[in-house]
Design brief:
The chain is mainly alpha-helical and 230 residues long. Helix content is 50%, strand content 8%. Strand 1, helix 3 and strand 2 form a beta-alpha-beta unit.
């Protein structure tokens, strides 16, 4: 059988079968995109950490925050795949912030407490105002003691006698990472369990330190009565 590729045969193929060729190329692209989409790591809400930097008179803070988040070694555990910082410096900052908070977006809000006195009431602290005061008065805040108790309750799921229980850690990891394509293979899953153990050990240490500071050094934390104006 003569299957030799000649210039004439190639020309005839391109002349009469160009639609088929384009169709095959398009189909190949679609299949490749489908494979990439299915195999790609899907970032869940828990794997995305977002900072909001509220308008402030201390404008240098935003750049320092970026440097801190992106410093060598990182400040997050293996399961945080994306870190975003949104600086709200427009005239619509309050509107944007209200929208973000109403939908439960974000993890940490960075905001200054530069206090401004109200004209005519300079001697009366009740009339003082700041970005921090207004944010606490207008939105639901997460008190430090609640943060501590919630963290302790979370760790309690995996601990017994003050130490992590390996089986509980592994069971939780398998359930939490079920849809994460990074841990489909057994060897990758085993490595992930090690990372999860390290994450929980670090969290245990951080919670203990935070609890110590909260109990013994209250001056490090700011207290403010909601709706103090009334």
């Amino acid at each position: 059988m003569d299957v030799k590729i000649t210039k004439k045969r190639l020309s005839e193929m391109l002349q009469y079968d160009w639609i088929k060729i384009i169709g095959v190329i398009v189909a190949a692209i679609v299949v490749w995109e489908l494979i990439f989409t299915v195999s790609a790591v899907r970032v869940s809400n828990g794997q995305n950490f977002k900072f909001y930097y509220y308008p402030t008179l201390q404008t240098s803070g935003a750049s320092e925050l970026y440097e801190f988040v992106n410093e060598d070694g990182g400040i997050f555990s293996y399961d945080v795949l994306e870190v975003d910082i949104e600086t709200l410096t427009t005239d619509y900052a309050d509107t944007i912030m209200d929208l973000r908070l109403s939908t439960g977006e974000g993890d940490i809000l960075m905001i200054d407490n530069v206090v401004t006195e109200t004209e005519g009431h300079e001697e009366d602290a009740m009339y003082d105002h700041s970005n921090f005061y207004e944010m606490v008065d207008g939105h639901q805040m997460y008190a430090f003691d609640d943060l501590l108790s919630d963290a302790q309750a979370y760790l309690g799921q995996f601990m017994e006698g003050g130490a992590l229980v390996p089986s509980a850690v592994e069971e939780h990891f398998n359930e939490r990472m079920r849809g994460d394509n990074r841990f489909r293979k057994e060897e990758n899953r085993a490595e992930g369990v090690v990372w999860e153990t390290e994450r929980l050990e670090q969290l245990k240490t951080d919670v203990e330190k935070f609890g110590y500071l909260l109990e013994n050094h209250p001056g490090l934390f700011y207290e403010y009565a909601k709706y103090r104006y009334t």
